[in-house]
Amino acid sequence: MALVGKAVRPACHRAYTLAELLVALFVIALLVFVLLPALVPCRNGSSRQIKCGTQVRNIIQAMTIFAQGNRDSYPLPSILDANNAAVSAADPREKDTTNNILSILVFNSSISPELLCSPAETNSSIKVFADYQAASPKAAVRPADALWDPSLRCDFTTGDGHVSCATLMPSGDCTPGVKSRGRLAMWGNTFNATEAVVANRGPLVAGLDRNGEPIHNRNSNTMAIHGGRTTWEGNVGYNDNHVNFETCMNPGEITYRSADGKRKVGTFYYDEPDDAAAVNAYLGIWVRAGSLPQQFKGIHD
Fold first, then answer.
1. CA distances from 69 to 72, 74, 75, 76, 92 (A)
2. How far apart are CA 130 and CA 258, in angstroms?
3. Given a cut of 80, is residue 70 above it in pLDDT?
4. In what side-by-side order are the strands of the sheet with 165-168?
5. pTM to 2 decimals?
6. Rg, C-alpha atoms of the chain
7. At residue 42, does pLDDT exceed 50?
């Protein structure tokens, strides 16, 4: 006997009501309203970091081009201003400060003053220098003969400064006809991918902890340029013309040889005491200079 089954009716999907659609749209709008403010700073932060990296790259490229016409040496004010036309100093090496070095590049139209101020700068005392004089600068000892405008300032601790970037400390022997020693051996076209010469400024590093990590002021404005309040991050330009966005001050490829001959990891903004040859990657905004590392003075916030 054949069994006759009941026909199964297909399921019927109920349409959404207008009220349900309005509720869904309200929820979506609420999520956008809550999340958008959090997303915009992230996008802006990434944009500032990329623009800042481009500025650092332009500076290192300008230094490279300058070196091509100056015996492979980056700008060294003590040599260029031998007749004291721009700045007068008892010791010519006192002129080798960060502001004078970078001002030479601006004077040569290799870079603009805007490139010296990071778009991510957090210190209100650091701003673009709008009154740079690229011809006969009045602040020079002899304006008609000066090769840079000395009024461009990097010391933001005593007034407005115009520089966000740090430079390698150009300490060492630069006697004409003698092979450069110390960090001056890195102050030029060496094309070495591990020699850092220009970067976003860094905090004051007091020393290293037992793990080799830098001990620094975690409340510094410097920390907030690209990183958080407790970590430093920044764009670093190297001697082979590449720029890398570093997420720490002591990347493993940056090394120096200690007095006992061991190869150790260096920290960008710290002068390791066991670096007897004074060739570690020591960067800063130098407001005082000389031949020896102890004659230099850097500034921080």
1. 7, 10, 11, 13, 21
2. 44
3. yes
4. 243-246, 234-238, 196-200, 165-168, 283-284
5. 0.83
6. 27
7. no
